[in-house]
Amino acid sequence: MSSITEIQKKRFLFLKKLYEVTGGDQHYFINMSKIGNDLGYSINDTELVFQYLYGQGLAKLQAKGGIISITHNGVVEVEKALTNPEESTHYFPSVVNIINIKEMSGSQIQQGTCNSIQEVNYNLLDIENIKIAIGDIKSRIDSLSMNISDYQEAKTQIATVEAQLTSRNPNPAIVSECVKTLRSLLEGAIGSVLAAEILQPLLKHICN
Q1: Is the Cβ–Cβ distance between 69 and 22 less than 8 Å?
Q2: 155 Rama class: left (phi>0) / alpha (psi -120 to 50) / beta
Q3: Do the bridges between strand 59-63 and strand 30-31 make them parallel or antiparallel, or are there none, so unpaired?
Q4: Concatenated DSSP letters for 59-84?
Q5: 91-99: long-range pairs with CB below 8 Å, 24+
Q6: Fewest CB within a 10 Å sphere: which of 10, 48, 75, 118?
Q7: What is the pLDDT of residues 155-169, one digit of tens each?
Q8: What is the tens place of the pLDDT at every residue in 10-63?
């Protein structure tokens, strides 16, 4: 049986993926199996995770066959977690404790310690320049030919970066992952030369 921490992680990642795919639109429906498959969950895990999210009013069953949507409370929960990644929410532990360690770079985590000091010289986030670069992407993203799903997910990633940059303690790992996703989405769009052009200033200020 999975540990409680692992179960909480699966629940949050599922809700976050649902948020990203729908762009936070409560009227955007998708099959839960698609979310589960993208995350590598078994059918049983997917159903159990959704049962919890449904029970807490974070996701809603819209039709037979596993057609679901995110709810207003689900949107609020994800945005609250990403805006304040070091703080737990009503339903989930802090995002910092949920991050997949295998994908984390240039970061340190310290738990269960007493009077410990840990110094990390991130030098990863040039916040003002990242803000400028993200603003440029926002103003030009409509110039790219993207399908609606990729467009909505790109807007979600941009919003997540913006939320991090206004946080008291922006998380470099989250910003970096969002930028990687943005790069993948934009470079796959028609007009990828333009995508590369608008991404370059942002990538310059992010540690890969």
Answers
A1: yes
A2: alpha
A3: unpaired
A4: EEEEETTTEEEE-HHHHHHHHHHHHS
A5: 91/11, 91/56, 91/58, 92/8, 92/11, 92/12, 93/5, 93/8, 95/12, 95/171, 95/174, 96/171, 97/5, 98/8, 98/9, 98/12, 98/13, 99/173, 99/174
A6: 118
A7: 888 888 888 777 777
A8: 899 999 999 988 888 888 899 999 999 988 999 999 999 999 999 999 999 998
**CA–CA gap between residue 150 and residue 7 (Å, rounded):** 28
For residue 192, pLDDT over 90 is answered with no
Phi, psi for 30 (deg, rounded to 5): -155, 155
17/20 Cα distance (integer angstroms): 5
Q: Considering Cα of 123, then 109, then 11, then 86, what sign does the dihedral take?
A: negative
Q: Can you name the residues that pair with 190 across neighbouring β-strands?
A: 145
Cα–Cα distance measured from residue 170 to residue 174, given in angstroms and rounded to the nearest whole number? 8
How far apart (Å, rounded) are the C-alpha atoms in residues 200 and 35? 30
